[in-house]
Amino acid sequence: MGRGRAKAKQTKVARELKYHSPNTDLAALQRELGGSGKSDHDFDDDYKEYVDDDDEDHADEDPDPWVRPTR
User: Fold this and answer.
1) Nearest to residue 7, comparing CAs of 19, 15, 18?
2) pLDDT bracket for residue 14 (50, 70, 90)
3) Backbone angles phi, psi at 15, to 5 degrees
4) pLDDT at 67
5) CA-CA distances (angstroms) from residue 16 to 2, 5, 8, 12, 47?
6) CA separation for the pair 57, 42 (Å, rounded)
7) In this predicted structure, what is the pLDDT of residue 43?
8) Tens digit of each residue's pLDDT (9 = 90 or more) over 28-57
9) Secondary structure in 3-state letters for the chain
10) What angle do CA 44, 50, 51 make, to 5 degrees?
11) pTM
């Protein structure tokens, strides 16, 4: 019970979004899509201390469960 009121509200919101588009600030959208000038390389360097590069050391600890065992 109580589903009817929630569904009616969802229908109302969906109808408003479909038929009444909000005002879009195109200049702000262009600035956002233009980027901040910081490259992905700089972003990666910020988190370099958290990256685990020694995946080879742990290869035998967690075997792939989908691989057939050899006989």
Assistant:
1) 15
2) very high
3) -65, -40
4) 76
5) 22, 17, 12, 6, 42
6) 28
7) 59
8) 989 999 875 555 555 566 777 777 766 555
9) CCHHHHHHHHHHHHHHHHHCCCCCCHHHHHHHHHCCCCCHHHHHHHCHHHCCCCHHHHCCCCCCCCCCCCC
10) 70
11) 0.31
Query: And the tokens for 42?
Result: 């700089």
How many residues are given for the chain?
A: 71
Tokens found for residue 51: 């990256």
Residue with tokens 């980027």: 35
